[in-house]
Amino acid sequence: MIKGITVVLYERTETGTDDAGATLYAETPVEVKNVLVTPISTEDIVSDIQLYGKKGVYELCLPKGDTHRWEDSRVDFFGTSWRVYGYPKTYIAPNIPLVWNTKWRVERYG
């Protein structure tokens, strides 16, 4: 049986702006269970560098029904912090036989 791991997602909440007008955020850690973590292929790494200027390392496969906001968020797993980037790949839930239907890519953070 395929089983994911628990990752810590830091949900961002807008708290105001700084003196230069940039938005400030507070991060709240939330555990998300049963997330599949898969390495990105070499071809996808090259494409992501060209498209986003980001060097992706892993792809996160999220369980169906997940409602967390992942875009541009920090996530911790394997003892390291990662940053979510790009756009999700979301598949039609009833057409996917397993329990995961959305994929996000992450790059090393920090």
Write the layout of secondary structure elements.
Blueprint: E1 5-17, E2 23-39, H1 42-52, E3 56-63, E4 74-77, E5 80-90, E6 100-108
Antiparallel strand pairs: 1-2, 1-4, 2-3, 3-6, 4-5, 5-6
Written account of the structure:
The protein has 110 residues and is mainly beta. The protein contains 1 helix and 6 strands; from the N terminus they run ββαββββ. The chain has a 6-stranded antiparallel barrel. A hairpin with a 2-residue loop joins strand 4 and strand 5. The protein is globular. The mean pLDDT is 93.
Considering the chains and any ligands shown, give keywords for the structure.
mainly beta; 110 residues; six-stranded antiparallel barrel; Thrombin, subunit H
Structural class assignment: mainly beta
| Estimated helix fraction | 10-25%
Secondary structure: number of strands: 6
- Determine the CATH superfamily: Bacteriophage SPP1 head-tail adaptor protein
What string gives the helices and strands in order? EEHEEEE
**What is the CATH architecture descriptor?**
Beta Barrel
CATH topology: Thrombin, subunit H
Reading off the top of the CATH hierarchy, the class is best stated as Mainly Beta
The count of domains is 1
Beta-strand percent range: over 45%
The largest sheet is: 6 strands, antiparallel, barrel
| Low-confidence runs of at least 5 consecutive residues | none
**Strand arrangement, major sheet:** 1-2-3-6-5-4
Shape: globular
- Rounded to the nearest angstrom, the radius of gyration is 15 Å
Distance between the termini: 34 Å
Integer average pLDDT:
93
Number of helices: 1
